[in-house]
Amino acid sequence: MSDIGRRAVLKGAVGIAVAATAASAKAVEKLEPLGKAGDFDFLTGEWRIENRMIKPGTQAEWIEFPGEATVHRILGGVGSVEELRIPARNFSGMGLRLLDVERRIWVDHWVNANSGVVTVPGQEGVFRDGAGTFTSEETIDGVRNIYRGVWDGITPTSCRWTQSASSDGGKTWAYSWYMRWTRVR
To answer: CA-CA distances (angstroms) from residue 94 to 20, 108, 121?
Structure first.
């Protein structure tokens, strides 16, 4: 999915807002520098992924499809590279996660195989209490939109990634994509 497509999905999903916790709203405001090498090591390996996402152009119609990924730890744990493949949708892309060692903040970039362009700036975030929360901002038609990706439910054999957006400063969130990852043995 293109960056414009991702934004359209997120923007269209704002009508499905869900209340955010006070902690989530505070996480959007300021990141504590907690990042360290190896934070993304849990993702290294081969994965099968169950995707559930808002159908582009709709606000409440969900579609489901399988995917798979191969993830590599790089640079001694200061980086992680994910190759995402979704054959059912003829799609592939790459997640590139890099730790800004000096700031101790992770930056999560995306590359759509159709464009080959790295998204900048990436979503910035850290892991706290077993979950990684990554946010970015964009102003569209004078409205400040916050985009959030969260890694949680992390075990040796599974994890989850969710994508949501907020147009009210993080008070409410509209979810547009859920990915349930299961490690291939």
So the answer is: 29, 10, 15
Q: Alpha carbon of 69 to those of 91, 164, 178, 183: distances in Å?
A: 12, 21, 15, 10
* 3-state secondary structure at position 50: strand
Domains held by the chain: number: 1
List, for residues 155-179, the tens digit of each pLDDT value. Answer: 999 999 999 999 999 999 999 999 9
**Domain range for 43:** 3-183
> Rounded to whole angstroms, what are the CA distances from 111 to 1, 58, 73, 83, 102?
10, 24, 17, 10, 24
**Tokens matching residue 20:** 């955010």
Provide the 3-class DSSP secondary structure of residue 185.
coil
The confidence band for 109, taking pLDDT boundaries of 50, 70 and 90, is: very high
Please report, for the domain that includes residue 75, its CATH number: 2.40.128.20
